[in-house]
Design goal:
227 residues; extended; 3 domains; 71% helix; 9 helices; mainly alpha
Length: 227
């Protein structure tokens, strides 16, 4: 590579640097666009607050999603001691984890919704082989860089905890109301006197939100209760 650069001269070095910058910018832009779409879908499904759906007045860019993605990327990078090997290995584990959801979903469908109409069906053997391959590749990545498993576990627990809190907002509000009710002193302070009404109104608004359920046939006998 160095020999080629020396033979090509300054123009070749400049061309390679410019090409590398363009490719890097394209990769970063792709990540930002994908994360913005992900945040939008999570907000539409009420997993994230609706503020992630707001956009800039002129460019219509989701500023909050872009800032959140940039901040999270910086946290991941600096928390791993700025080690690109750990970051790349952790990305591989995340990708493998996401890909493993496909065979697991197919396995669940075979047992829970085996009569569901669909055009393509995967055999049981193909699903098992796919899961085994994913596990072997994941174990290989962990053996190569053991620290990656620790970072992946920490971030996984953190993200699952945040999403669990957003999916149990009414239950958390009930606990908050119970705590408020147990301390009469909070009822007398000007700053907290109206908290009971605000909490009740908040829970009422959450319960009035519409719920859309998509079904293929009429075999669904009981819908899950709305929290």
């Amino acid at each position: 590579m160095l020999t080629t650069l020396k033979a090509g001269g300054k123009w070749l070095r400049t061309w390679i640097v410019v090409d590398a910058i363009v490719v890097l910018c394209g990769g970063v832009l792709t990540g930002i666009l994908a994360s913005s779409e992900l945040f939008e879908q999570l907000a539409q499904h009420r997993i994230l607050p609706s503020t992630f759906l707001s956009t800039m007045p002129i460019t219509r860019a989701p500023a909050l999603s872009i800032i959140s993605f940039t901040t999270f990327s910086a946290i991941v990078y600096f928390s791993s001691s700025a080690d690109l090997m750990i970051v790349s290995s952790m990305f591989s584990l995340v990708w493998l984890f996401v890909m493993s959801l496909f065979p697991v979903t197919l396995l669940i469908l075979k047992f829970s919704r085996g009569r569901l109409r669909r055009d393509e069906r995967a055999t049981f053997g193909v699903i098992i082989v796919t899961i085994i391959v994913v596990i072997l590749v994941a174990v290989g990545n962990i053996v190569a860089t053991p620290r990656t498993a620790g970072y992946f576990t920490i971030y996984f627990i953190g993200i699952v905890t945040v999403f669990s809190l957003t999916q149990n907002k009414i239950r958390i509000l009930r606990w908050a109301y119970w705590v408020y009710d147990q301390y009469p002193a909070l009822h007398g302070w000007n700053a907290t006197r109206s908290w009971d009404g605000r909490i009740i109104d908040w829970m009422a608004r959450l319960k009035r939100q519409p719920v859309c359920i998509l079904v293929k046939t009429d075999e669904v006998r009981r819908f899950p209760p709305i929290p």
